[in-house]
TrEMBL record:
Residues 1-24 form the signal peptide. CDD domains: PBP2_TMBP_like (cd13585). This is ABC transporter substrate-binding protein. Keywords: Signal. It comes from the Bacteria. InterPro entries: Bact_solute-bd_prot1, SBP. It holds the Pfam family SBP_bac_8. The keyword Signal applies.
Length: 466
């Protein structure tokens, strides 16, 4: 899910440090018992019980807030105990505003929280344990979407998102090149991916990178682009047999040769293979700059792009498809999803959780799901063909069989690994530093090995919060 201006639609271009000053109140929140309520006198008429008011915060414009309030109003009308009020805060100010409210002990009851902030806020006692949120319910999200701290679930992602490969079908057809595979068991190796990218890369004279006379300074069409935002690069470290962290998130593994080699291969798409445009890993508009701009034949990025930008481009004539990622040694894609949390300062955790359970259900977020911005969180939408067709068989998506294989089935495959912010702390600091460290790698001024080795101690310190 993209961490951006609209919930579930973007990933950070630059990470902002999250620092919460002050602690949550150490108090037990209990619902008021009916026997504790003041009794009406014999001559007075009993007043209806006052509703519990819940404030739900979100990042977005006032217009986006109004849309979400419209959804909340349906919840408000569905029962007579809880009233939800939506508080929309501009994305640019969202975390700053939440930090200010936390310091003043004026946080909303519940709200959205950036992926890379969930575990950190948990360590600071700012989030409620939601382990019991779905007890007795058949609407519990996939386990892969649970944010955990010290073994306890502190949040669930509101949507399931994976990384995949997008491609321009017209460019492939014109070059008479077979489309990338939608099935995981047919996934391209990295070498096959690069070889295909060369066939789709053209200079102004129509030559390919492996042809004599090719001019790398006059490329008019690139064959590929692999998103190199720091968090997405973990895909290739893992896929090459390494990783950013150990499985439990306690140790840094980015200094291992396999991790470094995976990152260098991504850089070499531009530096040596000459099949990708220069990207310095700072802006989260990769699909807009590549597939939609018509300058690149295939590009990696998140599933949310179907709804956030590709629907519009499709309506304007873009003929695109989806495929599984290529692989180096192991087949890997990352899953993620922005979190809805219950803040520990709330006096009404039970009611806040009841709202979130309702709000996170597919039928109450159908516009986001059917548009392609969100993917469902319940397993049945991936395994029950009737539900899958209800989700995917609509004009907002590529053809059903292709999307089902490359996205729906892929999301349930062994290739899926959780993004690090589901289970380890300080990913903000780590990714910010890593993005800076790798800056000269993308332009060829240094190698991934030299850049990471020289800064390994600092990366380990960032991971530890120092």
């Amino acid at each position: 899910m993209k961490v951006g201006k609209a919930f579930g639609v973007g990933i950070l271009s630059t990470a902002l440090a999250l620092s919460v000053i002050g602690c949550a109140k150490d108090e037990t929140n209990t619902a008021t018992k009916a026997s504790d309520a003041p009794k009406a006198s014999e001559n007075a008429t009993s007043k209806p019980e006052e509703k519990v008011k819940i404030i739900y915060s979100m990042w977005g414009s006032a217009e986006e807030g109004n849309v979400t309030q419209g959804v909340a109003d349906k919840f408000n009308a569905s029962q007579d105990r809880i009233e939800v009020e939506v508080q929309a805060i501009p994305w640019e100010n969202y975390m700053t505003k939440l930090n200010t409210m936390a310091t003043a002990e004026q946080l909303p009851d519940t709200g959205m929280l950036r992926e890379d902030g969930v575990v950190q806020w948990s360590t600071q006692g700012m989030l409620n344990d939601v382990n019991t949120m779905y007890e007795g319910s058949d609407s519990k999200p996939l386990d892969s979407l649970a944010y955990k701290y010290q073994g306890k679930t502190v949040a669930y992602a509101a949507a399931n998102e994976i990384l995949l490969l997008y491609y321009n079908k017209d460019m492939f057809d014109k070059a008479n090149v077979p489309y990338p595979p939608a099935a995981l068991d047919q996934a391209w190796t990295w070498d096959e991916f690069v070889t295909t990218a060369k066939k789709l890369t053209l200079d102004k004279n129509g030559k390919h990178p492996d042809e004599s006379g090719f001019n790398e300074q006059s490329i008019v069409q690139f064959g590929a682009s692999v998103e190199n935002l720091p968090w997405q690069l973990e895909t290739w470290a893992l896929g090459n047999g390494g990783g950013f962290y150990s499985g439990d998130g306690t140790e840094v593994r980015i200094g291992e040769d396999a991790s470094i080699e995976g990152i260098q291969k991504v850089a070499d798409l531009y530096l040596k293979d000459h099949v990708a445009p220069l990207s310095v890993g700072q802006t989260d508009d990769g699909i807009q700059r590549t597939i939609i701009a018509g300058t690149v034949a295939m590009a990696t990025n998140g599933a949310w792009n179907v709804g956030t930008s590709l629907n519009t481009a499709k309506n304007e004539g873009l003929n695109y498809g989806v495929a599984v990622l290529p692989y180096m040694k192991d087949k890997v894609t990352l899953n993620t999803g922005g979190a809805n949390v219950v803040f520990s300062q709330t006096k009404h955790p039970k009611e806040a959780m009841e709202w979130l359970k309702w709000y996170n259900s597919e039928e109450n977020n159908w516009g986001l799901i059917s548009s392609g911005i969100w993917m469902p969180t319940l397993e049945k939408w991936y395994t029950d063909e009737t539900l899958t067709r209800k989700w995917v068989e609509n004009p907002n998506f590529p053809v059903y069989d292709e999307y089902k294989s490359a996205v729906v089935d892929y999301a349930q495959s062994p290739a899926v690994k959780p993004a690090a912010w589901f289970y380890t702390n300080h990913t903000t600091e780590f990714n910010t530093l890593l993005g800076s460290v790798l800056g000269d790698v993308w332009t060829g001024k240094t190698t991934a090995k030299d850049a990471i080795s020289k800064n390994l101690d600092a990366l380990k310190a960032a991971h530890s919060g120092n």
